[in-house]
Amino acid sequence: MPIAPGSTIGILGGGQLGRMLALAASALGYRTHIFCPDPDSPAFQVTANRTIAPYGDEIALKTFAQSVSVVTYEFENVPAETAALLERLVPTRPGAKALAVAQDRFTEKEFVRVAGATTVRYATVSSATDIAAAVAATGLPAILKSRRLGYDGKGQRQIERAEEVEPAWLELGAGDCILEGWAPFVAEVSVILARASDGAVATYDVPQNTHEGGILRRSVVPATVGGATAATAVDIALRIAAALDYVGVLAVEMFVLGDGTVLVNEIAPRVHNSGHWTIDACVTSQFEQHIRAVCDLPLGSTERHSDAEMINLIGHEIDRWPNLMGDPTAKLHLYGKTEAREGRKMGHVTRVRRRQT
Amino acid sequence: MPIAPGSTIGILGGGQLGRMLALAASALGYRTHIFCPDPDSPAFQVTANRTIAPYGDEIALKTFAQSVSVVTYEFENVPAETAALLERLVPTRPGAKALAVAQDRFTEKEFVRVAGATTVRYATVSSATDIAAAVAATGLPAILKSRRLGYDGKGQRQIERAEEVEPAWLELGAGDCILEGWAPFVAEVSVILARASDGAVATYDVPQNTHEGGILRRSVVPATVGGATAATAVDIALRIAAALDYVGVLAVEMFVLGDGTVLVNEIAPRVHNSGHWTIDACVTSQFEQHIRAVCDLPLGSTERHSDAEMINLIGHEIDRWPNLMGDPTAKLHLYGKTEAREGRKMGHVTRVRRRQT
Question: pTM higher than 0.90, yes or no?
Answer without folding.
Answer: yes
